[in-house]
Amino acid sequence: PITVGRKSLPAICLTSDMAMVTAVANDVGFADVFTRQIIALGREGDVLLGISTSGNSENLLHAFETARRMKLVTISYAGNDGGRVAEMRDGGLVDFCLTVPTSSIHRIQETHMTLYHIMWDMVHTFLQDRSLLETTDEHI
Q1: Are 65 and 93 in contact (CB under 8 A)?
Q2: Could you tell me the CATH number of the domain that includes residue 112?
Q3: pLDDT, tens digit, for every residue of 45-94?
């Protein structure tokens, strides 16, 4: 989303290009639909945000492995216990794993959407005023 009065930021949704998704799924396998796009588009320092209610989506797990090799910052939103993506965090393959501790798919997805909007607003806020990222004893 673009916020009035704030600089627009480049972002790509890897599920939007259905021709790419179906071509990779048919020719390579669905587990690599994101991996192929990350290899083509990702650069060191970019951010990969992966969202999965279960945390067990094979294509997302492969995406995080590829992103780690390419030195992208990795953030995952998962539900319940975080699934295998939470284990990837513990193994250092995912930088941040935000888990919604419920089995209700509706609550998980609603919370993921809220987290996404909060994160988007925080990124814009911190890019607009980097001094907010500075920490002093007064802020602790």
Answers
A1: yes
A2: 3.40.50.10490
A3: 999 999 999 999 999 999 999 999 999 999 999 999 999 999 888 778 89
47-51 and 73-79 as β-strands: parallel, antiparallel, unpaired?
A: parallel
**pTM (predicted TM-score):** 0.85
> Which pLDDT belongs to residue 137?
59
Q: 6 in a domain, yes or no?
A: no
**Containing domain of residue 57, as a range?**
18-130
Is the pLDDT at 140 greater than 60? The verdict is no
Show the 3-state SS of the chain.
Answer: CCCCCCCCCCCCCCCCCHHHHHHHHHHCCHHHHHHHHHHHHCCCCCEEEEECCCCCCHHHHHHHHHHHHCCCEEEEEEECCCHHHHHHHHCCCCCEEEEECCCCHHHHHHHHHHHHHHHHHHHHHHHHCHHHHCCCHHHC
The verdict on residue 7 lying in a domain is: no
* Total domains, the chain: 1
Let me know if residue 1 belongs to a domain: no
pLDDT at residue 2 in the model: 64
